[in-house]
Design goal:
globular; mainly alpha; 65% helix; 284 residues
């Protein structure tokens, strides 16, 4: 029996399993199928769009972005700022309630795969970076495991922070998608990346997870270790991005833009951020 099979048996033996009637949870097959389709779209999509005009998606983007605002606001409101440590079994009504919120967050990560499809249809291929694909692909698997085995308040901390950031982020995208008439109302765009940096969501999760490795908390250490490793990987990737893309680069044009070197601009385009980085991602 393989290591992965043993690990699944270990989880099934010791951890809380969520209600199997919830969609995309009872078996890993659906989410693996979605993941494979996602990779296929990333590989085939740009080729199919190469000789076509960008697809006009303004109405779709307006509905999508404001829909994500509502969903993110709902998850943040329902999740609330609950306990620093919450059990992951049916030990309380609060735990069961937060397990349901965790499922909605997991489902939102599946929906957000649409971001990549929109990039491809609008021929924004420079946005299809390793960071973008890594983040989207890994989040759906992480949250599948989280919802199936350890759903609850402890698991939802990163979802709580991320939902708040996404309320503001998708609100900006939705307003921007309405057209140039909204530009004068979007003066606060430059503060969005600051919001992400100030929230330091992955650093908070890292500290929170490390704390629970040593605290008397009813949450599996093995899952804490997985979350910690994943958070560190995102910190490394984000730090690499921000190192290459200084926060205030939008206020002070770099020599690459001033020189107008086509070759250098193409090199810079390889490091364009995915949708999280609001200063440089064009979703409108």
């Amino acid at each position: 029996m393989g290591v992965s099979a043993l690990f699944v048996l270990y989880l099934n033996s010791f951890y809380f399993k969520i209600n199997p009637i919830w969609p995309l949870v009872s078996s890993p097959v659906p989410i693996i199928s979605i993941f494979l389709c996602y990779l296929l779209i990333i590989w085939v999509g740009p080729k199919l769009m190469a000789k076509r005009q960008p697809v006009y998606l303004k109405p779709v983007l307006i509905v999508y972005n404001f829909g994500m605002v509502c969903l993110s606001a709902y998850m943040f409101y329902e999740g609330g700022l609950h306990h620093f440590c919450t059990c992951t079994n049916h030990c309380s009504n609060l735990s069961e309630f937060l397990a349901a919120v965790c499922w909605w967050f997991y489902f939102s990560k599946v929906i957000e795969l649409s971001d990549t499809i929109f990039f491809i249809l609008r021929k924004k291929n420079s946005q299809l970076t390793f960071l973008h694909v890594y983040h989207h692909a890994t989040m759906i698997f992480n949250w599948w495991a989280g919802v199936k085995y350890v759903a609850g308040g402890q698991s939802f901390l990163i979802g709580l922070i991320n939902s708040l950031v996404h309320v503001v982020m998708y609100l900006y995208y939705g307003l921007a998608a309405l057209g140039p008439s909204m530009t004068k109302y979007l003066w606060w765009k430059r503060h969005l990346t600051s919001l992400q940096l100030v929230s330091l969501q992955f650093f908070i999760v890292t500290i929170h997870t490390t704390y629970n490795l040593f605290a008397d908390c009813d949450f599996p250490d093995s899952m804490n270790t997985v979350v910690l490793a994943y958070s560190i990987s995102l910190i490394v990737l984000f730090s690499n991005f921000y190192y290459r893309r200084p926060l205030f680069s939008h206020a002070h044009p770099s020599p690459l833009h001033l020189l107008g070197s086509r070759h250098m601009i193409e090199l810079r385009s390889q490091h364009v951020s995915f949708h999280y980085s609001l200063l440089w991602t064009d979703m409108c």
